[in-house]
């Protein structure tokens, strides 16, 4: 009997030790690989300068000029949450996200800040024809958008507050869907759904005769705003050589988009169709950041973020 | 003998509790060592406090549970209809058998894109998927049971003129209760997992928020503690229903019906 128990006790200790080793091991698994700099973006025309950066090899050149021995790795991530999690796990150095998800992460204690702005984009809420206001929404209708806390969700809340007086009025009617899936749903079931989306999906949907734009992003926001910003955590910022190389490469890519739009168009054709690129002239690529304060104020009011973040603490200088 | 099994069982439970405490201890040590950011590894205390204070977890669980139970009820009615049909018409039996073979291996999430095309983004779509998830385990269990009962009582039924109502109640209903419980348990297990995955992937809900959507939303808002709270909620709910409700029922029935192995 005693013998049996001592075996059991040993087994418990061994299981415990194994678990500790496993947990520690997971954290150390990447240490022996070649040094990498990992960048991630998402789908859509708002990320076009990054295609240029990739195609022209700007970052690789800047890194070589700074005498850094780093391999550049690009990743496509489906949403900002994945980007946040990758950055927390030290699997991502530079990311590109909308301002609201960035603020949510910052508020929850992530040590990331904005490197620079990337793009402004026309956004819009597409609705079945004949609908003139959100107050006409039936309870069985759904609003499709990428995810709760996304820029589309915040803009919708801003518009709901302006028109109905309740920012959370439509929160129970949201369906979380990627832009391409949302587009498919709109094409098939267009009398039931509304879709808050961005180019090229916005333009594709508006070509359908029974869909029309209910409200655009700037009307919701009350002025122009930056759609996507480039961000990095403190550990990357402290690596001054890498940080400078990246911000130089990004500035060059944005300048390229503005200086030679025809060349940029040709490069983008490798990954987009001509129909997708019809919306390109409406996009604005600039490193300026617009509307940051207004997002902070609104999200603070709506208790989506707890602290009233100061603009100085949001941007690397 | 009975005493011996009792002590053995008591010992097993003790070891399980000890192991659980050990897991909690390791978790707490890692959480407090700040080896990982707090957003990845919150303390157990924070998770429990969040679970207790955040009653929306329970509303969400009840909503998902309600949907799973509704689908299970609908499936039971459907399966009973299918059984009657398959007993009457051989062609129906062959059809249901074929459908079972073809459809039962498909997880609900796999046909989700198709169902959205058929039904749109409506509660009907969820209901259809849940029906698909729950109906097949129930069907196979009850169909086997029907076959067994027919072969067991075939001669009795032929030898004595038992009225239909009595035959249905005494032989088929009472005889199938244990299988019904097992079928319901399997159906519930599949349905419960299906509803959570569907909600997490598409956030396709009615006017209320289910537990899958709850976890998804909290992940997007980077509320990791609530995500852990939601997962803990699912775990507790699963234990409560699967282990306590169904297993107790089965244990009770195995004494009542004199069946040892269920």
TrEMBL record, chain A:
Judging by the UniProt lineage, the source's domain of life is Bacteria
Species of provenance: Fusibacter ferrireducens
Q: Which Gene3D superfamilies match?
A: Periplasmic binding protein-like II
Protein name according to UniProt: ABC transporter substrate-binding protein
From TrEMBL, chain B:
Answer yes or no on keyword RNA-binding. no
Q: Tell me the domain of life.
A: Bacteria
Q: One of this protein's Pfam families, by short name?
A: BPD_transp_1
Query: Which controlled-vocabulary keywords does the entry list?
Result: Cell membrane, Membrane, Transmembrane, Transmembrane helix, Transport
- Note the Gene3D superfamilies from the entry: MetI-like (1.10.3720.10)
Membrane-crossing residues? 57-86, 98-119, 194-215, 227-246
Domain ABC transmembrane type-1 span(s) in chain numbering? 80-244
Instruction: Name where it mostly resides.
Output: membrane
What does the record say about its membrane topology? Multi-pass membrane protein
- Where does this one sit in the cell? Cell membrane
Task: Give the protein's recorded name.
Answer: ABC transmembrane type-1 domain-containing protein
């Amino acid at each position: 009997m005693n013998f049996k128990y001592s075996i059991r006790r040993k087994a418990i200790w061994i299981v415990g030790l194994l678990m500790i080793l496993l947990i520690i091991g997971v954290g150390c698994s990447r240490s022996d690989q070649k040094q990498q700099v990992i960048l991630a973006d998402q789908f859509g025309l708002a990320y076009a300068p990054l295609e240029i950066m990739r195609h022209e090899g700007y970052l690789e050149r800047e890194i070589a000029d700074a005498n850094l021995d780093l391999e550049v790795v690009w990743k496509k991530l489906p949403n900002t949450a994945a980007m946040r999690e990758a950055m927390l796990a030290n699997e991502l150095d530079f990311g590109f996200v909308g301002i609201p998800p960035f603020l949510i992460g910052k508020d929850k204690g992530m040590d990331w800040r904005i490197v620079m702005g990337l793009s402004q984009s026309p956004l819009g809420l597409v609705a079945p024809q004949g609908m003139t206001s959100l107050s006409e929404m039936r309870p069985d209708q759904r609003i499709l958008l990428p995810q709760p806390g996304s820029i589309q969700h915040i803009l919708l809340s801003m518009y709901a507050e302006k028109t109905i007086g309740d920012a959370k009025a439509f929160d129970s009617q949201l369906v979380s869907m990627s832009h391409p899936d949302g587009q498919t749903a709109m094409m098939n079931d267009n009398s039931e759904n509304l879709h808050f989306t961005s180019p090229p999906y916005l333009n594709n949907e508006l070509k359908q005769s029974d869909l029309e734009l209910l409200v655009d992003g700037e009307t919701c926001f009350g002025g122009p705003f930056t759609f996507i910003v480039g961000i990095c955590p403190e550990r990357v910022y402290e690596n001054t050589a890498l940080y400078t190389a990246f911000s130089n490469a990004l500035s060059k890519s944005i300048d390229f988009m503005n200086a030679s739009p025809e060349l940029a168009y040709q490069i983008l054709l490798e990954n987009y169709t001509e129909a997708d690129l019809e919306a390109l002239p409406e996009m604005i690529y600039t490193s300026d950041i617009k509307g940051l304060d207004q997002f902070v104020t609104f999200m603070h009011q709506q208790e989506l973020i707890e602290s009233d973040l100061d603009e100085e603490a949001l941007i690397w200088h | 003998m009975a005493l011996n099994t009792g002590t053995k069982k008591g010992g097993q439970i003790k070891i399980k509790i000890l192991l659980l405490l050990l897991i909690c201890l390791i978790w707490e040590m890692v959480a407090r060592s700040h080896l990982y950011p707090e957003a990845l590894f919150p303390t157990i205390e924070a998770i429990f406090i969040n679970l207790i204070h955040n009653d929306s977890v329970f509303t969400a669980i009840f909503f998902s549970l309600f949907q799973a139970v509704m689908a299970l009820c609908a499936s039971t009615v459907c399966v009973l209809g299918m059984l009657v049909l398959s007993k009457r018409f051989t062609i129906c039996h062959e059809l249901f058998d074929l459908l079972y073979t073809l459809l039962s291996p498909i997880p609900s999430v796999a046909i989700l894109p198709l169902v959205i095309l058929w039904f749109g983004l409506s509660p009907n779509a969820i209901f259809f998927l849940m029906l698909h998830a729950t109906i097949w385990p129930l069907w196979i269990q009850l169909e086997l049971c029907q076959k067994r009962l027919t072969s067991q009582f075939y001669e009795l039924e032929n030898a004595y003129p038992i009225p239909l109502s009595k035959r249905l109640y005494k032989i088929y209903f009472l005889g199938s209760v244990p299988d019904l419980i097992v079928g319901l348990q399997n159906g519930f297990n599949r349905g419960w997992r299906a509803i959570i995955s569907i909600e997490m992937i598409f956030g396709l809900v009615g006017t209320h928020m289910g537990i899958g959507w709850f976890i998804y939303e909290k992940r997007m808002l980077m509320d990791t503690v609530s995500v852990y709270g939601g997962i803990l909620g699912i775990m507790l709910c699963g234990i409560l229903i699967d282990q306590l409700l169904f297993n107790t029922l089965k244990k009770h029935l195995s004494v009542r019906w004199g069946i040892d192995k269920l």
